[in-house]
From TrEMBL:
Keywords: Hydrolase. PANTHER family: STAGE II SPORULATION PROTEIN E, STAGE II SPORULATION PROTEIN E-RELATED. Pfam families: GAF_2, PAS_3, PAS_4, SpoIIE. Residues 93-144 form the PAC domain. The keyword Hydrolase applies. This is SpoIIE family protein phosphatase. Residues 145-215 form the PAS domain. SMART domains: GAF, PAC, PAS, PP2C_SIG. The keyword Hydrolase applies. PROSITE patterns: PAC, PAS. SUPFAM superfamilies: GAF domain-like (SSF55781), PP2C-like (SSF81606), PYP-like sensor domain (PAS domain) (SSF55785). One of its GO terms (molecular function) is phosphatase activity.
Amino acid sequence: MSAETSVPRPREPGLDISDSDLFRGLMSEAPFAFAFFNPDGRFVRVNSTFTELTGHPVELHLDRHPAELLPADLTTLIEAALRRIADEALPVTDQRIRTRAENGDSRHWTVSFFPMRDDDGVVGTALFGVDVTERQLNEEVLERSEERYRSLVESQQQLVWISSPSGSVAEDAPQWRAITGQGLEEYLAHGWLDAVHPDDRPGTEEAWREALRGRTMFEWSYRVRTRASGYRHFEVRAVPIIRHGRVVEWVGANTDVTPQREAEEMRGRLTDQLGAAALRTARLQGATAQLAEALTVEQVVQVIIDVGRTALAADHSSVALLDLDRATLKLISSGGTPDTRGEEIDLAQPNVMTMAVNSRRPLFAESPDSLRAQLVDAGADEAQISGFLAQTDERAWVGLPLLAAGRALGALRFSFTRTQKISQEDGVFLEALAGQCALAVERATLFEREHKTAETLQRSLLPERLPVVRGLTLAYRFRSGSRHVQVGGDWYDAFVLQDGRVAAVVGDVMGKGVKAAAGMGRIRNAMRALALTNPPPAAVLTGLDRVFEATEEEEQVTTLAYMVVEPGTGEGTLALAGHPPPLLVSPQGVGLLHETEPGTPLGWATSRKQFRFCVPPGHTAVLYSDGLVENRKRGLDAGLRELSSVVAEAPPEVLNSPNMLLDFLVDHMLSGYEQDDDVTVLAVHVPPATKSD
């Protein structure tokens, strides 16, 4: 009888299965479980290893069916195998079963069944079983390790892939295809590159080739098209697996970093928004500071144009003020505005500025199409719109109404030679800017109105001409401040007294505007009345103190220099009320400041004094306000020293002409300084004596 499991072969010489001693010896030493069943399915032989599988002694098995002593699962497995061999005469291999030992440990077996033949056919079935408990445990450990690795990879949103040494993908990556929607054939080889964003693909492909050539780690990042046609960000890292100096494959992992990238982009956008908001705030603060320093409408307009150019990067800026009586906008600065005709715009003519004024709302046109649509809605002629757009290089427009307490003052117009995206934040900034501009325009308009009134009042109170007196030459210069253009309280006067002498005075009422001009007028008129009644300087100042206390406020400060001089001889007297001393200029170019007590301003309780003051023939006495010698960068003492030294630079022809001398002094004293106060200068010149005299 042969135990061959497939093709029958002749028995080896010297071996006989009936040799029971040999058979028992082999079975008892065999490291596998063995059992032999007769055609009826009864046990004929079992070895001791088989008893480890069943848990029964050898003798108990003999001549019994498996169902009589084996567990149901083992019985079912054996009987099914015996039936199959009886029907098909073919082996049944690699059947798995688990048993439990007496100590409770589980054992794993792999059993196979083989038909036993002789010349007459199948005479029985042999069972061989191998204890694979250790291998099973190792497999379970490996499987658990793989499950842990798989769970770790999945928790980290990683896609693991494998490629050949040449970089061609040969194995499926279901996670990749689940994300990209690619079929297997689409993914294999280099098809995965088709899912990479077109902008990222060239760099990714080149970096992958470089890693393949150098057999170095591949680290890169790219965007991948998803099944839903969106894109997600991935970071990839792949390493070569090298055996015996050769790359056998590449193993890589893609990590989905879309949430991190989106968070970074969000942080970037927030940073940009905060930066833009800070920049807009700084620009608005800068514009507000500049507008606060602008006093006239012209200065305000210049600031608006500068802000449009620097803060808004506008190519054109225009400002127009509303004339309600004429129902027009008057252009203060056109800035090359091409959609207007002339300097006035009829409010019924739809354009960027009139629409902003009429609606009391900003107008934003980010493109020519946007402007066309808004103008058509406002009733503008389409042919005129087309003509305007054809002749201009402007491509975006902003119209802002200038509103003060809800009242329209005018409009601003900014335009750009490129289309503009105006965000909600930009709109808020522009409205705030327009509000500051409106306040500045209103303030400047009121200032100019007050300035015009005060200037008219001041001019009306100053003498139109100085008296012409034989033996005496009078000259004056009055220069209004260039920075603070409000009129001040500077004044001068010269008149002939009843005894033929000439009274000359220069005064300064501190302050600006109508109040200072009105105070100057009262003091000037009172001084004339007192001088004509009782001309000595000390008496006049004493009378002015009483007038000042009765008519002026306590905080009002007024100073003056008053002198009376005899024509021809130049003999005279002088009194000061807190005013700088007069300058005496000789024909040789020597300037001397009169050394006398400065006194106190008008209205301060004091005993007024007068001093002899002589203007010899050929000399010139100069009375002046503090604006000539004092400013923000030069103190009073330094200014007085500079005034004396400047005289020495005057040429002879200037020294002999009072008018030329005053021009020379004013020009040189103000040279290099920003004038911030009125300058008033009065010259009393005594001509040199002639032979006829």
